[in-house]
Amino acid sequence: MENSRAQWSSKLGFILAAAGSAIGLGNIWKFPGRAFEGGGGTFVLIYLLMVIFFGVPLMLTELSVGRASQANVVGAFHKLGHRNYSWVGWVGVVGAFVITCYYSHVGGWVLRYVVGYAFEAPEIYADPLGYFYAMLGYGAQGATFFPWIAVLFAAVFMLLNAVVIIRGVEDGIERFNKIGMPALFIILVILLVRAVTLPGAEDGLRYLVSFDWSKLSFQTVLSALGQAFYSLSIGMAILITYGSYLPRSENLVKNTVLICTMDTLVAVIAGFIIIPAVFATLGPDQVGKGGGFAFVSLAGVFEQMPGGRLFAVLFYLLLLFAALTSCISLIESIVAFLTEHFNWERKRTTIWLSLVMFLIGCLYTCSQAAYPLKGIWFDAVKGVSFPAFCDAMEFLTDRLMIPACALGVCIFVGWVWKPESAVAEIEQNGVRFGLKKVYEILIKYIAPLAILTILILSLATGTTLS
Ligand code: TRP
Question: Rg of the chain over CA atoms, in angstroms?
Fold first, then answer.
């Protein structure tokens, strides 16, 4: 596919693929947890600002770099400007690799919950938190054991991904998306109505709409920035590959705005479901880890709605597909790069890559509860610290690699390839880009300076990692 530079078969095909890549676990599993940690409304507001001012222009930029260069993530920088910038592509590919290691495991958890609600819903209802921890190898009275349930389901999830990629049935998946994505959206709206009308949900709602200056720190801003990029699949140079498949007649601006809007809508709705549900069913301080929100807190919602079990199975099934489409596009882009760059054979590359990522992911899952595996982190306040391996992994990608890659894209396009070239590429379809002046200033000065400042200050003022 890479060599012949395939093209999207239709406009809808591209939108679905890009939206399918963007909408995933980041929206429903990560966003609510981050919003909760980041002070609710404070975080949501900053997040929206990040999407509008940095997310949209960067997505537009990555797509135009891809379409102009007709090359892969590393090759694009080489081709359009200078090989000194191919590190940007490398950071992107390695970032995608690290993300997929744990993404595939969380995808496995989703599968676990599809099966769980189908066959043992009463057990989940009886002790939502206990059920979640048991999956992660954490028993009663603090006993820990190997998280074989989580690992087993993650293996199945990874296998699904590999099979789809090797057999090349992405078409089928995309066609499924056509129904699956709207269906996911409808279910989310139904859950939203149920969650916000639960007794006790008001506190959660208030938390989500109130702005608290004291919660505003560089940490929060960096977390929102990283989350916005993560959720939009930016900062991994993957959209470069996507853009390279786009015909010149396509309106990049319209597509970008559409994808960003859909992705953000899903994330915000998920936040407005899960956080009120946490307040209503668990109490705000019962779940220490944001990561468990999408799994633990929803039990109370499903339990208190007619046909809850059916909704639960459907919800996790659709989330599973959303996760699958994201994960496939992550793996696909790494495979595409490896096969093109090193001339490796596609099938073997996929198998080995999946296996290695799955194994590294096991360390992520084990460090959630069962084993005290540590990672390493550095900031100016605490110096070198050793946070849980799983936290360190997410920090590495969300707060370092993704912003760094995005920064590289800004500097490259702003100063080497030049914003005018990007604008020319954007205008290839014959429609004038009305906001080009704003775009040029953003990409050249504001975005790189802002990203760099946020990165440095947050490392200098210390992280919240324990
Ligand atoms: N955006 C995806 C999500 O929200 C995850 C993701 C991050 C991703 N970077 C990506 C997916 C790059 C595909 C390509 O779940």
Answer: 21
**Cβ(340)–Cβ(240) below 8 Å:** no
CB atoms near residue 396 (< 10 Å): 18
* Three-state secondary structure of 189-227: HHHHHHHHCCCCHHHHHHHHHCCCHHHCCHHHHHHHHHH
Other beta carbons less than 10 A from residue 348's beta carbon: 11
C-alpha of residue 104 to centroid of ligand 1, in Å = 12
Residue 1 belongs to some domain of the structure: no
Q: Which atom of ligand 1 has the smallest separation from the CA of 230? A: 7
Residue 444 lies in a domain: yes
SS3 272: helix
Q: Domain range for residue 120?
A: 11-461
Question: What tokens does 47 get?
Answer: 């997040």
The pLDDT tens digits for 165-207 are 888 766 767 777 778 888 888 999 999 998 999 888 999 999 9
Q: Each residue of 327-371: pLDDT tens digit? A: 988 998 888 889 888 999 989 999 999 999 999 999 999 988 777
Task: Tell me the backbone φ, ψ of residue 200, rounded to 5 degrees.
Answer: 95, -5
CA distances from 68 to 48, 191, 262, 411, 413 (A): 29, 42, 25, 17, 12
The CATH number assigned to the domain holding 321 equals 1.10.4160
Distance 225 CA to ligand 1 centre (A): 14
* Residue 327, in any domain of the structure: yes
Ligand 1 pocket residue status of 330, Cβ below 6 Å: yes
Q: Give residue 142 CA to ligand 1 midpoint distance, Å.
A: 34
In a domain, 6, yes or no: no
What spacing in Å lies between the alpha carbon of 383 and ligand 1's midpoint?
A: 30
* Overall domain count for the chain: 1
